[in-house]
What does this fold into?
Amino acid sequence: MAVMSREQTRARQVARQKQPNTFWPWFLQRVTGVILVVLLAIHIGVEHFGNLNKPGVMERERELIIFSDVAYRMSMALWWAIDLSLLVFVLFHGLNGIRNIALDMGVRETGDKVVTAVLSIVGVAALAFGIAGLIAFKRFA
Amino acid sequence: MSTSPTPGGGYRITRPYKVGYTHIRPGAIDTGTLAWLLHRITGVFLVVYLLMHIFIVGQGVRGQEAFDHALAFVQKPVFVFLDAGLAGVVAYHAFNGLRIVVFDLGWGIRIQKGLFWVSFLGSVAVFLGSLYVVRDLLV
It folds into this structure.
């Protein structure tokens, strides 16, 4: 019985225990991670530290980043693309990481469903709030 | 003890299933465990930071003044220092994560320890570099 048919494999899995959905979260964690290395380097370089040493900025004391700086970026499609991708990928990567910790702790089946549901709700809510925040820069500009 | 058959004959023990962090023994942490532990700790920290970050920058929904007020608060010197620290934490998680992806693809398995120390030193370099970049604001 060296090679089993698909039905036999599946029957074994079901008989043993239902495994949590294992391939796509594992794969997407790595894909989003690699993309995030690039996106975060750009984000931190430009949006966190980018205003330093710019003419006219260092004179504004304690106001390194202000609304108009961000609104200027939000008028460009490129930054919309970068920021939206960042939001989606980082929320997925982070919350999936929390799910991995829960799986390490030993949740199975029902616990896994509960954890995944809670994390999905948190993720969608954070994404919605984040997009509303980005839109605000066009609305109030 | 419960078992389940494996393909090709033989049995695998499935119960009791070791859960939790039973493989960490304080006083006997090797490099690989340290790398894993730091990756997990930085990951959890970054998720918490991320949710705070989205909340703060999202203050733009309440208008210009609310946004400027929130941003001015997080540009006090202590927060600028923490911002440089954040860059270092992100760098550690990123470099170690890249090491893991590369390992998963099967490359560099024998030089794992070296790769870990390279990624660790790289993240320290990013942290120190960020401190240098923001030096004027730390006063």
